[in-house]
């Protein structure tokens, strides 16, 4: 499990089990920090539910 943070927007993007992908405009760029070994145990119950909803929207699961 890995955690992903958007460094330019200064916000956590989510947690993933496998690969990550992003769509960027032509000549676009992004900067992310990917941290291994971080999971849901760091989130409170409300945060976990909100996070899971965000991940479903983001990754279409």
List its traits.
single chain, 61 residues, alpha+beta, 3-stranded antiparallel sheet, 1 helix
Describe what is shown at a glance.
The chain is of the alpha+beta class and 61 residues long.
Write the layout of secondary structure elements.
Blueprint: E1 2-6, E2 11-16, E3 32-36, H1 45-59
Antiparallel strand pairs: 1-2, 1-3
Question: Can you tell me about this structure?
Answer:
The chain has one helix at 45-59; strands spanning 2-6, 11-16, 32-36. It is of the alpha+beta class. The chain has one domain. It has a 3-stranded antiparallel sheet. The chain starts with a strand and ends with a helix. The mean pLDDT is 75.
* Proportion in β-strands: 25-35%
Biggest sheet strand order reads: 2-1-3
The helix/strand order is: EEEH
Mean pLDDT: 75
> Measured on Cα atoms, how large is the radius of gyration?
12 Å
**Count the strands?**
3
Describe the main β-sheet briefly. Answer: 3 strands, antiparallel
What structural class do the secondary elements suggest? alpha+beta
Q: Which range best describes the helical content: under 10%, 10-25%, 25-40%, 40-55%, 55-70% or over 70%?
A: 10-25%
The figure for the number of domains is 1
Q: What is the molecular shape? A: globular
Count of DSSP-assigned helices:
1
* Distance between the first and last residues' Cα: 16 Å
Low-confidence stretches: none
């Amino acid at each position: 499990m890995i955690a992903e943070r958007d460094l330019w927007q200064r916000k956590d993007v989510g947690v993933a089990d496998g690969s990550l992908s992003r769509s960027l405009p032509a000549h676009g760029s992004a900067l992310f920090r990917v941290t291994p070994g971080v999971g849901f145990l760091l989130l409170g119950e409300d945060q976990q539910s909100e996070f899971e909803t965000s991940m479903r929207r983001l990754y279409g699961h």
